[in-house]
């Protein structure tokens, strides 16, 4: 019932086909070298696809089930560091075990899942606002740990020499690896969207939305509410961890600066602007916010008397203003459904 | 065999004893009313029986099984379904989704079936939709199936809750003040629905304030005061019971 309807293509199947195609593309000697003027857009597109993965999980958690997870970056970070520590070869002043990248990928997801299980069991029985506080705090604690345990994580310098499987498999250089990364991540993202959308559009999703509306009623109508909340929390954790692992394999490094609270803020604002609970809408919202950030970066170039640091702060003000406008004039988000979110606009 | 057996149920909140040694039984096919002044412990008793609240002591046996403090979802699946005092329609979901939600043993509520869109799941959904439409027909709200439940009138919400509870094919319904805030016409309609459900074998336990509606409907009344069962008996016995008149009907 979203207002953001496109003709019904099955995203899960399309994602699978595209993923297979992108793997073939990687193994083939063919490469595409984009013009260097587009790099700034392509780099942002990679980041968009990684954040989109986090957001797909967050939207299932909050948009559909009503779980207020204010720490999606925690799972992103844990996934990223687990993958980096296991696979890095001789990192500068940090632990690197030198395993092959698939080991790191699996470990990244599992580490995030482990954190999800731990947090889920300990907080999902509490009231909603406790989950919000605990997840926010945990994200900050993990950020603190990654900086202070510098012998393991490399601190603020980070972990270098992490494998870059996509870049290694792509010949050509000069941005060809950037293009290949987008193709692979794009297909992973489409597949993840398809799978999560099938979940939310099914009777499974109906139970989730019932939990969001009234947990107690849902329980007395025969549904195991806690189990659903826990599982959904873990799904979100897993896909966040996957995104983290993919990030370090793209960058060839892990660093605390990739995993700041900014990630949480951007995906949350993207979700609220797009319309929580609308599977396509939230991705549209994320694209809007990230596009807006890029636009303001260009704006900065036109204003030489404002330093970059100053402008970063101004950008936050502008993003905040945008969010205020949406909350005031379209509280359900651009593509959200007011009746489903009990928003009176 | 007795359908519901509540024995020595006890629940306190700090120093306040809300339910104090409550014992009663309900036979299959009975309609029983539970009355008592505000704060007598009626709703707390309901909450303890239905697993919404843990009881401190006592046992609840339903259909031969000990169901003391089993989780609420298990009790609902085993055929004992309750409603709440305030109508609790899921206002952010459509009327149809509200009724479809309780569908028992739905494979589509498991992730793998949902992701693969399994035939078993689609089959169950078709059956459930058919049953849901029948129920919406019975309660005369089928025309509202695609509307959000939040747009329904107060009376329609009551009907929706009843339809939704029946989706679980219960053997017994526990209704917490189903006639509260309902106009006389709709009360008559609700009573007719409940009587017809009872004719089909559904047992009912109904909390109510207004004695008038209940005396015509129920076979027996249980009177609670201060968390204790003061008296049980037919409506005629209860309305002539001196103790009850003193404690509840008042002067």
From TrEMBL, chain B:
Residues 4-251 form the ABC transporter domain. Pfam families: ABC_tran, BCA_ABC_TP_C. InterPro entries: AAA+_ATPase (IPR003593), ABC_AA/LPS_Transport (IPR051120), ABC_transporter-like_ATP-bd (IPR003439), ABC_transporter-like_CS (IPR017871), BCA_ABC_TP_C (IPR032823), P-loop_NTPase (IPR027417). GO terms for molecular function: ATP binding. SMART domains: AAA. Keywords: ATP-binding, Nucleotide-binding, Transport. It comes from Haloferax larsenii. Gene3D superfamilies: P-loop containing nucleotide triphosphate hydrolases. It comes from the Archaea. This is ABC transporter ATP-binding protein. PANTHER family: CONSERVED COMPONENT OF ABC TRANSPORTER FOR NATURAL AMINO ACIDS, CONSERVED COMPONENT OF ABC TRANSPORTER FOR NATURAL AMINO ACIDS-RELATED. Transmembrane segments: none annotated.
């Amino acid at each position: 019932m979203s207002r953001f309807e496109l003709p019904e293509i099955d995203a899960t199947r399309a994602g699978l086909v595209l993923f297979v195609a992108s793997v073939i593309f990687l193994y083939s000697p063919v490469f595409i070298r984009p013009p260097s003027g587009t790099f700034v857009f392509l780099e942002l597109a990679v980041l968009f696809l990684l954040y989109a993965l986090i957001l797909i999980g967050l939207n299932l958690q909050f948009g559909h089930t009503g779980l207020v997870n204010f720490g999606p970056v925690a799972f992103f970070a844990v996934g990223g560091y687990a993958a980096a520590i296991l696979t890095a070869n001789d990192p500068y002043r940090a632990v690197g075990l030198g395993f092959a990248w698939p080991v790191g990928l699996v470990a990244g997801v599992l580490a995030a899942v482990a954190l999800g299980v731990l947090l889920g069991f300990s907080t999902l029985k509490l009231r909603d606002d406790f989950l919000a506080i605990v997840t926010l705090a945990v994200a900050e604690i993990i950020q603190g740990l990654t900086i202070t345990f510098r012998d393991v994580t490399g601190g603020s310098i980070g972990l270098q020499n992490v494998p870059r499987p996509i870049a290694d498999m792509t010949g050509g250089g000069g941005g060809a690896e950037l293009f290949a990364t987008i193709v692979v991540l794009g297909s992973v993202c489409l597949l993840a969207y398809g799978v999560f959308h099938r979940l939310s559009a099914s009777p499974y999703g109906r139970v989730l939305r019932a939990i969001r509306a009234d947990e107690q009623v849902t329980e007395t109508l025969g549904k195991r509410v806690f189990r659903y909340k826990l599982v959904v929390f873990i799904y979100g954790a897993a896909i966040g961890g996957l995104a983290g692992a993919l990030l370090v394999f793209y960058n060839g490094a892990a660093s605390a600066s990739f995993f700041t609270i900014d990630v949480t803020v951007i995906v949350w604002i993207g979700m609220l602007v797009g319309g929580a609970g609308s599977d396509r809408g939230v991705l549209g919202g994320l694209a809007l916010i990230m596009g807006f950030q890029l636009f303001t970066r260009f704006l900065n170039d036109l204003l030489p008397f404002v330093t970059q640091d100053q402008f970063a702060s101004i950008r936050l003000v502008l993003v905040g203003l945008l969010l205020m406008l949406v909350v005031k004039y379209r509280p359900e988000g651009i593509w959200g459904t007011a009746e489903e979110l009990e928003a009176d606009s | 065999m007795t359908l519901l057996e509540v024995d020595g149920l006890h629940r306190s909140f700090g120093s306040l004893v809300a339910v104090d040694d409550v014992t009663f039984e309900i036979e299959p096919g009975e309609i029983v009313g539970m009355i008592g002044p505000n704060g007598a412990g009626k709703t707390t008793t309901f909450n303890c029986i239905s697993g919404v609240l843990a009881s401190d002591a006592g046992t609840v046996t339903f259909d031969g099984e000990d169901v003391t403090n089993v989780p609420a979802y298990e009790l609902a699946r085993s055929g004992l379904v309750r409603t709440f005092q305030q109508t609790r329609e899921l206002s952010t979901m459509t009327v149809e989704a509200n009724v479809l939600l309780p569908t028992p043993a739905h494979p589509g509520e498991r992730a793998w079936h949902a992701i693969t869109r399994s035939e078993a799941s689609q089959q169950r959904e078709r059956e459930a939709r058919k049953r849901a439409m029948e129920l919406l027909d019975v309660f005369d709200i089928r025309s509202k199936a695609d509307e959000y439940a939040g747009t329904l009138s107060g009376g329609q919400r009551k009907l929706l809750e009843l339809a939704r509870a029946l989706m679980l094919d219960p053997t017994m319904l526990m209704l917490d003040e189903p006639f509260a805030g309902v106009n006389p016409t709709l009360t008559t309609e609700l009573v007719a629905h409940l009587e017809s459900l009872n004719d089909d074998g559904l047992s009912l336990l109904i909390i109510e304030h207004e004695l008038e509606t209940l005396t015509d409907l129920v076979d027996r009344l249980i009177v609670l005061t201060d968390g204790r069962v003061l008296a049980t008996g037919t409506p005629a016995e209860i309305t002539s019971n001196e103790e009850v008149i003193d404690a509840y009907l008042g002067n």
